[in-house]
Amino acid sequence: MAQDATDAVTQTTQGVTDAAGMFTPDKLMGYWTTAQPVIINLIFAILILWIGMKIARFAGNLVRKMVAKNGKIDDTLGNFFASIVKYIVTAFVVIAAITKLGVETASLVAMLGAATLAIGLALQGTLGNVAAGVMLMLFRPYKLGDYVGVAGEEGVVTDLNIFTTQLSTIDNVEVIIANGEAWGSTIKNFTSMGVRRVDVDYGIHYDDDIDKAIKIITDTASAHPDVLTEPAAPWAKVVLLNESSVDIQSRAWCRAEHYWDVMFDLNKSIKEAFDKGGITIPYPTSIELDG
């Protein structure tokens, strides 16, 4: 038993000696000499990424500004080109950073080539969005500033890049739609035609003068400063004999950007004109039968 205790003490002493030998100045210098190139390359790779990302953003903004100065190219195309430039520069920066870590370019290309199928399967939705973005730029169903209906959402187009379309709704909600979904859906552009028609229905009492009501509607619409006479002057006709009202539809043309203002203004002003002219808007009524 005494011999076992002696052996244990000897092994412990030897372990401490070996551990101490690992941290001698010469050994530490050797470790530093070995790790120094790796650490320096890692620092340079991080710097390349940091500076490169700033350059990518700068390049994208520069393209956007250059296009903005060129009156022949609209902002939609400028944003699209800017996003492409940004992503291309970013790709080169990432490759440069990986190369700095000691991965040979040839090996990197081979690795990317071998991973192409897997990446393509994993990112097929993303690649589809890129392809859809190209189609949106080629056929131009909408551009920045247009009020559109896309994939069941409505709003003003605020951005179009290679991956997504961004809308701002009338109540200032940001909506981001993947280009693949946008291109695969029905697109309504409420701005591209330049003018829109405002259709509003009004129900009047059966005992009221229909011609008088029609005149009030057309005169009130014609007096609105944003209502146009082309492609047609304000129009009103009886469109339905309802259960408790005679329904008259008014149609007035205005510029696309004035659509909501004209609709809201006409609703208010025609109701006030009805009140002054003695035209009533009836409440729904029902007939109770005695059983």
What would the principal axes of the Cα set say about the shape?
rod-shaped
CATH topology of the largest domain: Helix Hairpins
Number of domains: 3
CATH class of the largest domain: Mainly Alpha
- Helical content stands at 55-70%
Largest sheet: 5 strands, antiparallel
Summed up, the helix count is 8
CATH architecture of the largest domain: Orthogonal Bundle
Q: Let me know the average pLDDT.
A: 80
Determine the strand fraction and express it as a percent band.
Answer: 15-25%
Strand order of the largest sheet: 4-3-2-1-5
* DSSP, total strands: 9
Straight-line N-to-C gap: 113 Å
**Assembly state of the chains shown:** single chain
Taking pLDDT < 50 over at least 5 consecutive residues as the criterion, the unreliable ranges are: none
Commentary on this structure:
A 5-stranded antiparallel sheet has the order 4-3-2-1-5. It is of the alpha+beta class. The model has no long low-confidence stretch (mean pLDDT about 80). It has helices at about 1-20, 25-70, 75-100, 105-120, 125-140, 180-185, 210-220, 260-275, and strands at about 145-150, 155-160, 165-170, 175-180, 185-190, 195-205, 225-230, 235-240, 245-255. The chain folds into 3 domains: about 30-120, Orthogonal Bundle (Helix Hairpins); about 140-190, SH3 type barrels (Roll); about 195-275, Alpha-Beta Plaits (2-Layer Sandwich). It is about 55% helix and about 20% strand. Helix 2 (about 25-70) packs antiparallel against helix 3 (about 75-100). Strand 1 (about 145-150) and strand 2 form a beta hairpin. It has 8 helices and 9 strands.
